[in-house]
## 1
Amino acid sequence: MQSASQITSATFVKHVEFHAEIGSTNDRALDLAVAEVSTDTPLLVWAQQQTAGRGRGANRWWAAEGALTFSLLLDTKSLGLPQERWPQVSLTTGLAVCSALQELLPSAEIGLKWPNDVFLHGKKICGILVEIPPRQSGKLVVGIGINVNNSLNAAPAELSATATALCDASHRKWDLVSVLIQVLTQLELHLRQLSNGDPELADRWHELCLLRGRPVQHVVGDRLTVGICQGVDRDGALLLQSEAGLARVLGGVIANWE
Amino acid sequence: MNHSEKTIKKLLVANRSEIAIRVFRSAHELGIRTVAIYAWEDRAALHRFKADEAYQVGNKGEPIRSYLNIDSIIEVAKRYQVDAIHPGYGFLSENPELARACEHAGIIFVGPKISSLEALGDKITARNIARQVGVPVLGGSDKPIINAAEGLKEAIQQTFPVILKAAKGGGGRGMRVVREASEFAAAFESAQRESLTAFGSPDIFIEKYIQRAKHIEVQLLGDKHGNLVHLYERDCSVQRRHQKVVEIAPAPLLNPLTRQALLDASIAIGKQVQYENAGTVEFLVDVDSSKFYFIEVNPRIQVEHTVTEQVTGIDIVKSQIMVAQGAPLSHDDIGIPTQDSVKVNGFAVQCRVTTEDPANDFLPDYGRMTNYRSAAGMGIRLDAGTAFSGAVVNPYYDSLLVKVSAWGRRYIDAITRMERSLQEFRVRGVKTNLPFLMKLMLNDEFRAATCTTRFIDETPELFQYAKRRDRASKLLTFIGDVIVNGNPVVAGQVKATRREPAPVPKVDLQQPLPKGTRDRLKELGPAGLCRWITEQKVPLVTDTTFRDAHQSLLATRFRTFDLLQIADVYARWCPQLFSLEMWGGATFDTSMRFLKECPWQRLTEMRERVPNILFQMLLRASNAVGYTNYPDNVVKAFVKESAQAGIDVFRVFDALNWVPNMQVAMEAVIDAGAICEPAICYTGDILNPQRTKYSLKYYVDLAKDLEKRGAHILAIKDMAGLCKPFAAKLLVETLKQEIGIPIHFHTHDTAGVQSGSVLRSVEAGLDIFDAAMAPMSGGTSQPNLNTLVEALRFSPQDTGLNSEHLDSLAEYWRAVREFYKPFDGESVPATSDLYRHEMPGGQYTNLFQQAKALGLSERWAEVCRVYAEVNQMFGDIVKVTPTSKSVGDMALFMVANNLKPQDVIDSDRELAYPESVIDLISGKMGQPPGGFPEAVKKRILRGAPGLTERPGATLPPVDFKATGEEVQKFLRRAPTEREVLSYLMYPKVYREFVVHQTTYFDTSVLPTPAFFFGQEPGEEISVEIEPGKTLIIKYLTQGDTHPDGTQTVFFELNGQPREVTVTNNKLEPTGVRNAKADPVDPKQVGAGMPGMVVSVGVAVGDAVKKGQKLLSLEAMKMESTVYAEQDGVIAQVLVKAGTQIQTGDLLLTYK
């Protein structure tokens, strides 16, 4: 496949695995990590269509044809990412996708909802799921789904109100390979910064943070905290100013934001 | 009056904070029972307690939604027999659904008819209504814009600039000013997006934007009987980002014809919809053309209704409630039979005091308001929400704290009264916009009433103001911190028990200051003064109590506070003293490092009080007041600045008596016009024929060299007290013959016989001697000033100083010394051994402490002997800071390693010598007479070449401008030259000092016991923070520790209760810090990454197999599983689901 060589020559990806249709690219990448068949990382699993794309937990990622859905298998050792910095990969990937979108649509309003949902003009355009393969292999799977040419006008109504696609914002079709290369290029840059400790992570986050200064509901299990988001700290933990004081949040979800 | 029957018995306000309270007040006055609703987050809000009954609506976590929940509100109203609902402003006030739900439930809605709400709530229909009655509407689109392209066409038709507005908007959201076509598309998209998220509607329309506009609005009031009046207008032109900031009634400088036209237009619009109840018609008035344009109608009570009430005397809220019950405007409780009966008296202005930080782009601030003091007095009205000392400002709501309205006969009277009342406010614990509002009240344009809607945006000076210093809170925080945690400077030391102030002798401050030595310096200049000194038949005296005495006895810990208390008395009683030695040496370092005081401030404040006696400092030549060599330009700048700040006499010394190293400092002193007093450091024994290196000739040659280089006075600096009485006599006698400048003798009484040396030198013609006040004399300090003066009485060398006065001063110092008990070490009288080791007084105690720390206290005699041996090994050098430290370090090193001098020189062992020793031998401290022995250099420098020239000669000059910029970064203002020098001398210490000052203010104003030990319960101190501003601080008690490890400390400040919260450092905050796993212990399982525990799969006692899942963690949506790395049985599980963990935290352990 011609695009595979295009990708490996233009980005840090060493090996490309293309599927016309697959259950979930993340699952495939996790399998590869466990089987350890390929040692060439970063390894890209790219699917034209996912039939069982996953979000966090039991969430499904709606992906019609035209979306860019792929997973990267990364070796944290060769990237110089110690385990304590893995959680920041989750945020860094979001930042990288934002940078890529800013390159593609310079005047667009792009933002991030902690920890890594990417929004374009107030609607979600990209979902990211970073997973750690079982057993301590030092590998990470970064799954990214971006709505590119899958116009959300065709999506279920409750989805089109909250989600958008690159083509909806720009009124034109995009070449998936060039979008992919843009994202991978930014990801490589951002991961390299992270391996150097990335002292500016919080600052860059704040420029894009959609929640900062807003009241948000944070849910962990059955515990609900309401607070004003103060951005993130240098570890990427979400800071919430609540009645009880400033809380540092590493897990849980932001259920509601005004 | 058919409608006088009151139908409302119980009124609910579907709102919160100040407007809810405002409505309760009028309702109460009408005899109506009041009901509040509150969200869970508002359970401590004031409006809850101002109502007769209060009920929670909604659930926890819905701070805003609760007030928008129509069903819940109606349910509460029905359950508690409420017969009317007032919506206030904001929230549901303009939502026809609430009015409809009220109608449905048979509850009176205090507001206009549903049809009015619907017609006026939508801006496009409202504009059509205005057009129908011939009121001009600003050019713009009638229909929402379909897309950016269509909008742009419309905008071009209107001509730029235009403004984009959300159809359903308000409060400035969804608004964009577009100045040219190229900006249109982006502005349109972002306005639409904001409208969508804020109001759930994408409808945006375009209006012509007026460059210079005033925002004028007219208050309407109508009843159910077709009567409609206006209550005149308000000027709300002062806006920030389309949000009103200040409102004025009536509009000053408004052309009467325009006013009448505005009032008529408003009535016409109201009549068109048969408006009832209170409402406001808003207009933009083009200042340049006097044309006006309708904007919108607000069918509700407004935030700024207060100013209209103040100038008309009509209670608008009360009228609303009456009208809702069917009363006509002519009802006595309303009192408006005709339009003519509404009269305007004077002017009123309203400011919204908010908890927003104007210095930080009006970012809302939250937290506990530790103190709230409001204004009062004639013409002031306050409408406050949750504003009281101890209230918590929480982040969910509007940041409005209190609305201040000021009434005055003229516009300017209202403004000055407002400014006065804003000054009266004290809000602590949260930031407020008060500084901004005060600045606004003083702005010329605002006072001239010519502001347009763009005034704030175009007036950047409104944002430049002196920060409120909040000095009292900062000082209380410091005292509280010391009470709870102690002052680290005295940690582990004995506590001083004296708390009462030291007795300051009474002097008559009315009397003119007697002339002193400094007046003589001003008159004669340095050379002339020195001639005068040599002409004196009696010796002059320098008092070292302000510097060397406490440096020698109390580790330089005297605080400026104690020095200043007695300074006035010195100025009046001791003008005959040659000088006060009061600066330099270690004072510069310790004052910042330990006492958190500015050394420059000590100097200038002392100078103010003692303008008539010479001030003297000790300058370490090229080391200035630091411990390393500085580039020449730093030394010069330091000397120049010190002279300007008040130093008259610079005693300059070099630790190795190396004259080239003193040259730069001496020249700088002479250039500064000050008295240059270079010192020869005395060591050895000129009477001992065996000690040939430091012979009489050596000192004479040195003295002559210094005289030749411009010395005004020669100092003999006998830092170890080695200059025995007969040696002193011989030395002074000889020097008096060989040089022509005055001689100043400085010694330490370590041996106990140095008064004898002083007396012998005086006999030999000494000009000036150093001594310390009796309670601060003896031992490692200077000889006793009081007894020396008396000893010379009735001799030809009688100093003429008044012993009675000196003894009163001594009594003061005796008491002061008691404050410093923690630093008052035991004094060990020296034995004859002193003359063998030649250790300077200050080092003697220090080195003993160092030896003790190394477990060598039992071998102290040996340390002293080796010290002498090291001195000889190094070639017999002068030992004073910093060379004495090198010799001491080497002595300890050798004793600890059981080395003999021969071992150092001959052995092949590679030894790691102390840093200070390498510095000394490599020439970084300068060159001793004859240089260092080659064998020592070879061993210690391992063949590296040492310096042979002056270290300062090769140091690149410091860039003061760049350093200043560096300081500015953490000081957050441009530093003074003195501050830059402090930073150059001690960068780290100075930074910490700046942090202390910004956190706690200037703590040097506190009495010493309070500074070191805090206050005793019930104790009251008075603290002068600036002339005429005194804080009376009484400490009451401290509260229990909170779960987060903080503690509240209670005070009375100027008679008012005040509390501060400090972190108790002695306590580990509970449940915050987890234990760490030992990475090498296989029985401990630690966390590899930070996160939150999602689930724990094992329990205590479970047997696990290698590879089994133990628990799972989550961080930023990323789950990771911790697997067992070995078989075993679980002993402990330290975390549970929900626990937040850091990398390395201990999760569980194996048996």
## 2
Amino acid sequence: MTTDAATARETDAFEIAHEADLIRVRKVLRAEAEAAGLNLVDATKLITAGSELARNILNYATGRRGRIRVEQVYRAGRRGVRATFADDGPGIEDVDAALTDGFSTRGSLGLGLPGARRLVDDMTLTSAAGSGTTVVIVKWQR
Amino acid sequence: MRIGDTLLVALQGDLDDTTVIRIEEQLTREIAHTSATGMLIDVSRLSVVDSFIARVLARIVAMVRLLGAQAAVVGIQPAVAITLVELGVPMGHLDTALNAEQGLALLRRLRHDDTGAGRP
């Protein structure tokens, strides 16, 4: 993914700190999905994955806040949307477990991360206990 | 909106979590305080249903049943249905129909089953 060239187009970057930001995340992802030419199903999957990840930040991140950055990406003539969600910890101790269906530290369904991963073409999660979590998702135009 | 004994509730717009919870409380109250025996929740104007919204929808249906009525979710958009299945939200136990008309027929069938009418 490091080979993706971000465009000169201004990227959408803002803080996720309130519930209203869930709606903003969905709105921005919808606009970027349309700009990248994603079809309705792929756009819906991207928006839904983003909604799950934004809620993760509101539920689990320290101070219940984090950041999102959304950008258009190109690879081999295809357009796509990349969204980066970052927070400042507590971090995820066991990344593999967090990506497993049904794993939850909160008594919820535990669908957030594994569910989001199934909805996008690529998802990378970087985390260490105490140093925050960064999740990058990419959805490509078909 | 009300059709006979059935409440028809149309959800629309982009719903944040607080709004979803408020709708849940409203609908539960409404079923309890009216003589409605059925509720159709029309989600055809929701372009995104994430795991939280889906979970609350399932909860509303379960509560309506506990209150002695029947409920079904109607009009799930195809893109939303595909997304929910891949997301892994368990909705198989939820009664759903393509649109309000079919939803009304579904509720009639469910009520029929409930009373045991027509059973051998």
## 3
Amino acid sequence: MGDELMTVLSADAEATEANAPPLGDRELRELYEALVLTRAVDEHVERLQRAGKVGIWAPSAEAAPVAIGVASALTNDDWLYPSHRDLGAFLVRGGGIGQLVAQVLGTVHDVTLGRQVAGHPTLPDGLFVPPSAALATQVQQAAGTAMAMKIRGREAVSVALCGAGAVDQPAFHAGLETAARHGAPLVVVCRSAGEDRGGVRRARAHGLFAFLVDGADVLAVLKATAEARERALAGEGPSLVEAVTVPAVQGQDTPDALSRLQPFLEHRGLLDPGRIAEARERADRKVAEAVEAEAAEPRPPLDSFLDGLTATRSWMLEEAREALAGHTAGTDDDRGR
Amino acid sequence: MGSWNLLQAVQETLRAEMASDENVVLLGEDVGELGGVFQVTCGLQEEFGPQRVIDTALAEGGIVGAAVGMALYGLRPVAEIQFADFVWPGFEQIVSEAARIRYRSGGQYSCPLVLRLPYGAGVGGGIDQSASPEAQLAHVPGLTVVCPGGPRDAAGLLRSALRGEDPVVFLEPKRLYRDAREEVPADETMPLGQASVRREGTDVTVLTYGGMVPVVLDAAEQAAASGIRVEVVDLRTLAPVDVGTILRSVAKTGRAVVVTEAPRYGGFSGELAAMLAERAILHLEAPVARVAGYDTPVPRVFEDTYLPDTRRVLAAVERVANF
């Protein structure tokens, strides 16, 4: 495996049907809606960014077919270590749009209390491990979790998502080597821009099974991830899925994940031009409503940033609370407390 | 319970905790079959199996990263880095990941791991196997940094670290591994963040930790012969350090010497001196003195000169006492 590009979605609906992973109508519709919603999130956050309400932001729509395809292949016992462009997976794994927007705007409803850069939400219990901006650290952590799953005899896999640049990082290599050496149930899914097969080459060097898939084909990503997962659960060791994406070029209309998936759903009778427009409007409204609801919400309480660094608060942070109260006495921060 | 040196105290504590908590796993370079570069984990793989005493690839970033992933999943990993000098490839996982995950997840995740770092000079390790990186580590918000100065403390502090809820860096003074034995009670825990007054005195406080503790105790003994009563405070935890015990002691003696083997410039000794300047200036009868390593890497054939010894500590104590 890994030499030929795996695709499922093609212009020939019958061929697609024959290749597709076994998905019901509802599941197909959910995949489609997640793609549409991720795109709507990008559009709204970019607007907020232009309005000066959001700082650093990494768009997620381009990576969405990979993130969504991967997340849709997992059960709730599987752990997912996302990169910073995998909001599609957040939505599939149960993250609400309200929670996401609260995180992006850093309001009082953000469970991470406005600490993380916009677009780094989290879900508990391994559903969406909080991403960091450090490249590939999650690959090695996912390998550690995979080892822990094996030690505990769990029927689950640990999955790391990463971008093209991550494959050059020591942590990427360490993660692959660790998992291969210990036969741990790890699945690494890396996006790659172009055809150099950087992920596949590295996977083979470490003795991992490798899949090369079309990264704009959400069904191919889902199928490869599901196969990698089955291999891991069967004790056949870790795998890597390299998802080849075509980078967007300004002014050119590259075939995106939605236009790849739409014909198949139309063939199944799940979509028509009316319903496509309706789905886009619904997603847009959903995000717009969440933005409207959160925009007026305050930041988390000021002294919350001194909480929860460790289970027990150190004396330094006790003192810092007093100092903070002194620094902010009589200021807007104080009045908003 | 046993009469153990520091190495045995660490080993027996790991053994006991592994026996009582199946979530405790060890990982590192050659910690299994070979028992670790200093033999600290000798025999543990035989006893607990290769799934719980794991020989890893020789990649420190990988070791710490794997420990993070295990800790997030609910295990209690103990990762050994062969020499503290080799921790730097793992530093990203320590600083950006282990120490921050609780904070950045708003408490949805925690990372209870112990990172064992044999540190310090005194065993002929030369420039690359003798470092004392406590300042870099203590500077990281979210890390607890522990450094025992004897077998009993090593056992009690390690046990607390293993039962804790957050990442702990456990600095083991390798020059004390096979030094003096001590009676170590079974199942004793010692709270992290509490210093220990190793010797009471009224004239000069010496603040120290780890491999310098026996040197300072020796100097205190010699100072007593010339009539200077030295109080020796073994900090035991460097982050968060026990500011209460430090201030109580200096309020009593009015004079302080800080002894570390790490380089002086930008060192943890500076944090202690600053703390005294900020909080104890009205008690001080003399400037705070620092006795430290030189601002170079540790030169192998001159390491006895590089390391603070009884003579240098005694000279600083006398200088401060007679100011």
## 4
Amino acid sequence: MKAAPFEYVRPGTVGQALSVLASWRGDARLMAGGQTLGPMLNMRVATPKCIIDVSRIDALRKIEDRQGSIIVGAAVTHSRFEDAAASSPTWRLLSYVGSSIAYRAIRNRGTIGGSLAHADPAADWPAAMMLLGARLTIAGARRTRAVDMKDFMLGPFRTAIEPDEVLTSIEFQTISADARWGYYKACRKEGEYPEAIGAVLFDRRRSIHRIVVGALDVAPQLLEPLAMIVGQQNKVPESQMILNAIAKIAADLSDVDLQLHAAAVRRAIVQAVN
Amino acid sequence: MAANGIGARLPRKEDARHLKGEGTFVGDIDFPNLLEAAFLRSPLAHAKIAKVTLPIELEGRAFTSAQIATSTKPIRTPSALPGYKSSDYPLLATKKVRFVGEPIAVCVAQTRAEAEDMCRQIVIEFEELPAIVDAVDGRKPGSPLVHEEFGDNLFVTTSANIRFDDAVKGADVVVNREFRLARNCMSPLEGKGALAYLDERAEHLVVYSSTQVPHIIRSAISESLGLEERRIRVIAPDVGGGFGYKSVLQVEELCIAWLGLTLQKPVRWTEDRYEHLVAAANAREHHYQVSAYANKSGKLLALDVELTVDCGAYSAWPVSACLEAIHAARNLPSNYTMDGFRCSTYSVTTNKPPIVPYRSVAKPSLGVAVEVTLDAVARELGLEPAEIRLINLIPADQMPYNTITGVHYDSGNYPRSMQTAIEQIKLDQIRDRQKTKEPDGRLIGVGFSNYTETTAMGTKVFIGLGWPLKPGFEQATVRLTTDGDLEIKVGVLSPGVGLETTLAQVACEILGIDPARTKVVHGDTALTPYSTGTYNSRGMVMAGGAVSMACKELAARIRHIGAHLLQERRDSVTLKNGAVIGARGGVVPIQQVAKAWYIDPENLPADVNPSGLEVTTGYKPSTDTGAIGYGTHAAVVAVDPEIGTVEILDYVIVEDCGTIVNPLIVEGQAYGATTQGIGQALYEEMRYDELGQPLASTLSDYLLPGASEVPNIRVIHFETPSPYTEMGIKGVGEAGSIGAPGAILNAINDALRPLCAEICETPATPRVVLNAILNAGRSQAGKLA
């Protein structure tokens, strides 16, 4: 399958990208790494009249390691996370997540912003950013705004980005040196989209107790009461307790799906508390 | 033995070009003004075509059945089987579409993208019909009909009862199981492809096709297009994997041949992965009801099997929709003795792509049914699964052996193979290991599976299969070049299986000419002797035999000329290491013999054979019953009971393919075929929704095993020559795919035994495994309550 004809534009700045986007009035699609959009174009599932390639905009490729926080540009590739020096607990976590996405060839092109904007519930970055409590910066023609990760992904393949906006960067607080985290994916095989994600972060110094369950039919979800209990007790809870916590936020999961997600969460907890 | 002759572990000659990316596949060929074709395919599984609107501006560049049907014949596959109904598979759909992906129109343009754009301008109005998606449902009376003229949805039914009622009288246990084997897709690296153009000088239509069977494709094109065979030349360039998909005729290659002829311009179609997955190369989908009867000591008394094959919408040529069921019914007794056998088969037409023969045809699926049932019988009787196999395997002293269904096994020691697998997989150690819990909570299991591979079957067997064309003698041409090198020409085709190397090794064995100095020509109807082609693991047996026979004759002629040059008697010289050696120690290299024939004929003996240094001869084994490879697969797996994943920890293959021509290639075939068997067992599944829409259209939905899923496979060889074939060679290409699924499922079931869970379907995905565990848990809880 070959893509239907489209115009191709490669702007050098976010401002240019926004003005091209506006000029096509909804008939243009932004492309970063193209690892999902590429096949969609070829299968003619997506037939935009214009592709705006944002992968070469320098501002979107920056990583700023600040005091207490990290800001990454939306067009930073998965492999840059994978290859980052494990210089802090935060970078160890980011590198771990980045290195487990699909295959190296995909990681060389696929980007964090593309993954978040596409909002596949089974993708890694939505779950990982939920875990880190990230804040996303979205630029529009008139204003630039910030959105919390928990308000960003509205559902499968739906986000808070308006049709005339561009996701530009993602910011999150760094985690403490003695923070404990776990990240577990249940995959059919190496490199495939997971069937369940469990992600756990206990950062006592910053009073953070988070458990995220991902690869649901909806956006990744926080299991807040469970996280509070496990964070305080610092031990692996009974499996039934995890099953109940997930069943509460995703009532229509099949028995098998419930089991898969509970196992993923349990294994992430085991990584974090042991 | 010559240094690089039979048995040499020689790297494949063809690898040099492939590793450099310098092979020539259909997609690599270029012509000035080459047009690329795209097919408009049905979006619906079953519908009447009410109206086709072809925009006027596409005239001469877009074609539907209205343009093509009057000058072509649909694919029709006759079969001699009683009651068989043949389908008409039109080149482009006429009144109805019968599966998603069926071609309706074809467009040509400078680029594939433009041709696809044109396809989107064609408007088709459909009247949707209810689809048959499940073969078992399709058997029910009153079902919607895929082919109205059939009156039901059955291509053919068969039944056999061989001493069944007497055999079951002494049974102590009956074990019943139902098996569902998923539809698989063959997924060679290179999909199908075809390119056609009219060669005015040679007065023929040249069709490049990625095919295993160029000569019979020529006959098929001739039949469909009404063009005499002398006016068609089919060339198979490099073929990037066949696996059986490329042993059948595709409507697309007929369309390309028609376009090349009609437009008088070169036209190409290259199948893409979407087309491959959705519209072609479907295989393996069987449904079984099995009852095994045994006595207390574990002796198998009889098998009772009902098999339903999901044949898809049309009967593929030349294999027909009956092949799977007929092959299964013949081979279900597998490697085991039994007193009775009953089997009924239903070959059902459904609204899916035609089922085509995939590496080993029906055997991987029937292997699951037989081997998993055997383990169930062992569990029922409290026997070790390895033990029940040793009890029932055909004893070595009964070879050659006719199975209860009449399959003739030529040679071998089946129990020794099983015993070796037990030792190599270290069964005792695994049973010990299972007594303690694994630190990571996973469950360990071991599974076995025996197989036979019925290769290079001959005329009589194919008559029994009802085939429209049957293989007979296989021919080869061998010729010394003027500089004393060797050319071999064969009608079989090497779709990446190394025949360019192994046939040269056979010649080396006899002539002493190093394979580096031998050129194997194959895959061109204008250059090679006729052959029904490469399938049924027959290439090495048949073409290898023919090359051997031809080389023996050539050797005699070389010795004759050489003796004359040495001034010795013909019977006092020998041919060794590429030279004629006289009794008095004189040496005449083959180059000098070639020079005498071609350049200095004044030096030839007066009674020289005027046919010279070129020999074409035919060969077939001394019986038609085939050369039967066999062996045992053993797998150790770890099942994660919380997330349902299966990891293969250890894998052993014990195999016997008769005389081994090249161990490196035999092992490569074993690794590749076993990998496909792992795919069937754990990953591969072409699913459809209730409307007949395929649910896997990319390789992210259709999972194939990759490097990280394939274990380090250990291969142990035995070599029992076939008594019926030249040099004792047996075929080997398909074996691995037969043994793997049964061994892996048995290993999983062995691991799940403490949980009372069992898997009787493929693929055993994490969801299938978890479902079995959860269901077993519920039924255990029910029992306790």
